[in-house]
Protein 1
Amino acid sequence: MSETTLYSLIVINLLIVIGLIAYIVRLLKQQQQKRVENELKIQGIAADVSKHRLHLIESLQVISRAILNEEIPLTEASIRCKVLLDNLDPQLAQSEAYIVFNEVFEQSKHIPRLEAWKALKGPEKLEFIAHMETLESDYNDRLVNAAKCLLAQDFNRYH
């Protein structure tokens, strides 16, 4: 093998090695950029989750105050609290202090809501209203206690 061929092969191999190094460096930079982008996405998602949890907590506290100030029907408040608690922490929703929201929810879920309620005729509404009044009188004390517990609840672990 001649010297020129040998030097030519060495140069070709060096060019291949340099090309591969450039390719590896480019891939590493892309991987680093993707890692940074993913971290930013995760931080954004975490901020959104935290904001959503804060909204749930604030909503629970507003409804609790409305219960205590008798500004909202207890059946409606129970339904809202049950849904909010389920979204915030299903285990908390099943705790002894808040299970009353679920009980009222279960006993009132046959009552039409929103547009279906608006479509009801007067006598039909009266039946449901009577049922809601019975529920509210039966569960009044427990619902008020649950509202007080919600206002006293430490929600710091959800931030």
Protein 2
Amino acid sequence: MSFPCRRSVSAWTTRSARNRVTEPPRYQLRSGVRLARGKDGRWLVQDKALRRAIRLGDKDARVLRLLSQGRGLRFDQLVGKVGNAAEVRRRLGALARLFVLAGPRSRQRLALQQEAASGVKVGQERTDEAIIFPQGSNPPRHACVATGACCSASFLGPMSEPDRLRVSGLTLGKRSQVSLGSEALESVEFQGQELWGMRRIAGSCVALGDDGLCDVHAEHGYDVKPIPCRQFPLRFHRMPWGLHVSLLLACEGYDRARDAAEPWPSRTAEVRGFVAEGAHVPACALPFEWTAGVPASISDTQTLLGALQADEAADDACPRSWLAAIIDKFERTAIERGEDLQEGPELSGSLRLATARLPGQLRDSTPWFDLAGLTAHQAHLAQRSAMLIARDEPADAERLTRFALGIDALKANLQLQPRGDFGVSGPARRHLLDVVANDLPAQIAIGHLDAGLTNLAVRLRFIEALACALCQAEGKTQVTARHTTLALKVAYRSEPDITALAKSRTEPPS
């Protein structure tokens, strides 16, 4: 990997003409960073180079005011003024992760911002863009088997404007619960935008007939359907090196058609067609970060992703142990990079990864979650489920009920053997391995790398626990593909709840 060389001499050592003199570092504010009072009286960091403004609490602002004076201050001088060494170390660490201190971390962040600005524009589609399909000798594949999973999401969109205009002008047939396309649409407001999708009644699309088939498709053909309907369950994420394709594993077609589906490269033209039509393609945020405050270059991130995917797990491997090995690789790299970017010896070793303790939790039977957090989440699910039932949306209400069952399973720490009481069939184990192989690139694309890996680990653990609970409810002791298929459907239709669940994970000590 193209990492900078280790420092053979401390970064905080200077050489005089006669001998080497070790001088404690002075912590100071980065050039171009300004501290001011906002209109509401709160402190505000104005950072022109990174084009942002950050609100700070009084204690952080006090340390920044001290650092902005002259050549800055040594750690002992800061402690003398603040009066508490642990407090100073904590505040300096937090400010360093915001890139407001002068030092190697901020220099690296500014350099990588230039790389991102001058490199590939990841928000723009290119006709020569590489298409990167799921990797491995046995990757999850997909073919439609008409299960209706794509017709029963909590929101059937977002549509493009051409989609909306085309569907609104249709006349629908006998399968549909409405006669006009304009009556088959609904909108929701999201982050100040009006998003359009297919209307739902009782949790299913109004164009879905009792025979499980789409009326738009039957009456007008496949190409007339909105992009989200045709694209499902394909997901796209644009990286600087290409467009990653993965699957929303809520669709049973990936499981049933795995061996019969066409090889992934045969779908290249289809994917390019979706993108050209205006399919939703979220772009990764640049620069990448290993963890909060530790930036990573485009090439380093691509190399890391390749390294994490390199050791493919065998079909009989333990999915959690495989993910633990992946996180171990990431942590070694991230910690080394974080140490290379420390502003001074007092902050050495202060890096705190979101993945801390995860490999151990993945490998053994340690409970993962805070019981109070799980209970609060369950209460919230019950409220939402009751609201959905009142709105005649039984499918979503049932999904939340099953999610609550998964939380019960986490409370009981239900696990597969050899740690737990439940065996697992080969296809069910393959589903759990697919969660890791399929989701790894997508999780790296959406934020800090360690936060993505944490979210992936929580999803895998939840699916395992829920599958065990479904098996237990039937009085059986071996988890089958039917149990994991249902657990996948619940988890992949509940992305916000999985993210919230990750916040209930037992945190490492400070």
Protein 3
Amino acid sequence: MPKSEIENPKIEIEQIRPELTWRLRQRVLYPDSKLYEMEMEEDNHGYHFGAFKDNDLVAVVSLFKNGTDFQFRKFAVDASVQNMGIGKTLLNYIINFAIAEGAERIWCNARVTAIGFYLRYGFVQTGKHFAKAGFDYEIIEKKL
């Protein structure tokens, strides 16, 4: 998909290389980890998107296709721009991207602390919980 200014006229969303997601992933999601630990083996098999505000990368997400299921991972919005609609804009962008690619469902392993955000945009809780690396997660999904 080309550059886009969806819902938030001050934000541009672009598809980016996977390594461009790593610094923001680390800073927002795993501040106690090393930068090199942010690379996922599957990064080379997914789509990666960045939201830019004033040419600064302020939010990232990675999207992976498995048939008609799309999983998004490592959704990170810089703390300095949270609650400005950037996460909503990026989430809606990847949902529309997935639909255009034939998705029937989009899902993620949501940190329990972020579930409220996703519920506001039509995601539902599955009741499938787990813990990993000191964080509690629940699988949430949205039928498309």
Protein 4
Amino acid sequence: MNRAWIYIVLCSDGSYYVGSTTDLEQRINDHNSSRYEGYTSSRLPVKLLWSSEFSDIRYAFEYERKIKKWSRAKKEALMRGDYDLLHILSRSTAMKERRSV
């Protein structure tokens, strides 16, 4: 299988965008050249903040879908490599979900 990446970019409005790709450098260039219409095309330029390599695009895409649902705080903890805080934030989210049921 081909290598793949999941990535987080910082948009010009301060928001984060999470994506996955098989060519990270090209994908960042695509974002900054407005090759595709979408979230980032109106928030240029974007700056790559974080990426992680996967052995298969399917795994990267699956992880992308999870991270897109995360809070800003959880994304920032991930980018810093603060796994203790990430665990705490994940637990607090799970507890909130249980209380709302």
